[in-house]
Input
Amino acid sequence: MGVTIHYRGSIDDLSRVEDFEDRVIDLALAMGGNVRLWRTADEATPERMVRGLILDLAPGQEPTTLLLSPEGWLINLVEIEEAEKGQIAEPPWCSVKTQFGPVEGHVALVELLSELKARFFSNLEVHDEGSYWEHRDVKKLKANLDFLGRAINALAAGLEQHPLTAEAAEDPDILMTRIERVAAQVHQILARPAEHPPVMFPEDAGAPPDPEENERRWDELFQENRRRQEQMERSMQERLLRGADIEDALDETIEEMAPFHPDDNEEDAEHIAELAAWEHSEEDEPWSDADDLEPVTAGAEDSGVDLLGRKRHPLQEQATKLLLDLGDATRHHGRPHPQIDLALRNACEITGGLAQVHPLPPAYELDDMDIGMGLTQLKRALRGAAFVAGALFLLRDSGVIDKPQFELFHNACQTISGEIISLMKHVRESQTS
Output
């Protein structure tokens, strides 16, 4: 027995697919989740395109598939090939298991489906085993989840400035207030225009004087970059499916998303010169004996050094080991598996976020701009660790990993998360020292 949300339906107007996708991307990024746009088609019939999104809304919650068949029907991941070939006769039921995630994740998914029904899928049917869709009864939902045993705490809550304590989270009134805020946030994000004003820093390229404002702007810039990344991927895949070669598809996508301006060259040259002027030393990386290291070649076994021959920070080594060990433990599954994909993608988010931060200048002597960027990337890594930890419960539940493997990987996630939080605290304190 588990707590699962089932849904099925079709989009009212296929011409509004991109509007639907962009709004869900906004929601995922604003709520600390992850999202991927999807475009595939059968080689024999490229006009039969499957499109939509795969949404990771909360740690411990199964991915939500919002993929559309060429007919506009919502379909499951395992039905993509059948949809491309026209072998599905009617809209199928899709499902998301939420029992290993936080109550807020279940509520957010229900409210998302409610807003999508109102705006894009008027015939959407939903069956919620937690009974929240039918009654909006948080106490009943929480009782259902508690009966099964809440597997994890929402580590993503640790990204907030003032998260709820474990004791406060058990208070019905406080929990109700939090749930109401999550529900309101979902509806607000889905209702607003898809366009966003550009993220602006002061004209002198300095950071805002208020540390929280500086960090907020970097978070917004990260979200804007993620939106553009997914939109570029969508544009690329559609061009490739229409028969363009990869170089033309890339050129056309770049011109569409970021038109060339002659003045850009001068700014780019200045930025490249600044990067070239920063020389790393052993003082920058006290864990590194750079003279004794050789550059790593592609395909070589992991040796604890990066492609420039610098030894990785210990936290990066832990994250890289987790990624490689997860890959080894799940390699025996030959066919695509959504939980394996969820775990490995977010393990990559940990290593990617840390790679953007390290190496830091000595003693974390960062200027305000570096601090804002660094904290945003550390939060990216922390989100990745939260989603990996949640995916482990799903992998154990489906028999992909056994109990000893689960405990080993989960302990590694907890250790990495703790060290990231400590580093975030250290960097934040450097702003006031």
User: Anything to note?
Assistant: DSSP finds 14 helices and seven strands in the chain.
